[in-house]
Amino acid sequence: MVYRLRNNVYKIGGMAPGSAFDKIELSLIRAFHTVITERSVSRAALQLNSSQPAVSAQLKRLRGLIGDPLLVRAGSGMAPTAVALSLLPAAQQVLQGARAIFGGHAAALGFAPQAAAQTFRIAASDYLDPLFLPELVARVRVQAPGVQLDLLPLTRDYDYRGHLARGEVDLVIGNWLAPPAELHLGRLVSDEIACLVGLDHPALRSPRQWTVERYLASDHIAPTPLHAGGVGVVDEHLRIQGLQRHIVVRTPHFGLAPAMVARSSLVLTTGRQFCARYIGSLPVRIVRCPVEFPPLTYYQLWHDLTHASAAVRWLREQVRDVARGLLEVKG
Question: Domain 113-189+297-330: which topology?
């Protein structure tokens, strides 16, 4: 393979002169990686500090060299082809290798937050802590002021596994009893499961009568499951135990559930850390859950497409540190 860097030509692998490899420049590989990652020629041009016509010309060359459209129209936007996605990890490796060879140790690290100008896409539930996403945004804004964040809701209609596999999202943050085996995962925090109730709830008036039977028969509020046909972490564990609670409200707006609890006889079952944020600001209290649950564990998930990315590795470190920092404050 041949890489042209400034005025020098570097041959790798002993490719024969005159082959397609003689026509490949490092800037072309960088253009390929940026266009496919951004899914937009105009956004790629901004990232590359280039013009849209220049990037369009590079994309045309790439299509001719690879023999594939690479980026095609999909609804109101653009989407990479299967061939483009299959080549993305190899392009990432080439760019990282070039930085390591020609950029010295600092470039080998591959990401300078203060100088970065790219977009990170994160799909997250709001179950972990109501302060988690605000703290993460504040941290990223301070350390990487040129970075943009797209925060996407993790709902039942959001195919997070497909979006990760297609490179359409960098990280997914949530809680699962058994995270998908094909994804990389990083454990963030574990939390005790507790119940949040209003001040006039029977569980507060008669704690000794707050039994498993009373708990199951109470009126519960629960989040909408994250995938069609799913029941959620709490109800999945109850089902394994042969138990079922009486859910009367399901909501995708988990952050509003404590306010609903405060004005009703509903029971919210979730992590104690989440519940604790509302003590003092709403007329609610935390009570123990009479059913024994394993700790509620929150993860960040990512695909092999971004596993070697220095930029996404930096992002994962910020997510980890913010989540653990919030837990330490509560502890």
Answer: D-Maltodextrin-Binding Protein; domain 2 (3.40.190)
Give the C-alpha distances (Å, rounded to integers) separating 323 from 121, 198, 258: 18, 27, 21
Q: Return all residues near 11 (Cβ < 8 A) that are at least 6 apart.
A: 1, 2
Res. 5: pLDDT tops 50: no
pTM metric for this prediction: 0.66
Per-residue pLDDT, averaged over 199-210, amounts to 94
Q: What is the mean pLDDT of residues 27-51?
A: 86
**Which has the closest alpha carbon to 298: 126, 120, 122, 121?**
126
Q: Which two tokens stand for residue 330?
A: 């509560």
Could you tell me which residues are beta bridge partners of residue 222?
Answer: 250
Beta-bridge partner residues of 40: none
Which helix (H) or strand (E) covers residue 1, if one does?
A: none
Contact 179, 173 (CB under 8 A): no
End-to-end CA distance of the chain: 55
Examine the pLDDT at 187 and tell me if it is beyond 90.
yes
Give dist(CA 226, CA 64) in Å, integer.
41
DSSP character at residue 248: E
Q: Say if residue 107's pLDDT is above 70.
A: no
Q: Of the CATH numbers 3.40.190.10, 3.40.50.300, 3.40.630.180, 3.20.20.70, which one belongs to the domain with range 193-294?
A: 3.40.190.10
Is residue 8 over pLDDT 60?
A: no
Percent of the chain past pLDDT 90, that is, above it, reads 50
For tokens 């988690």, what's the residue?
132
Residues in the chain: 331
Domain at 2-109: CATH code: 1.10.10.10
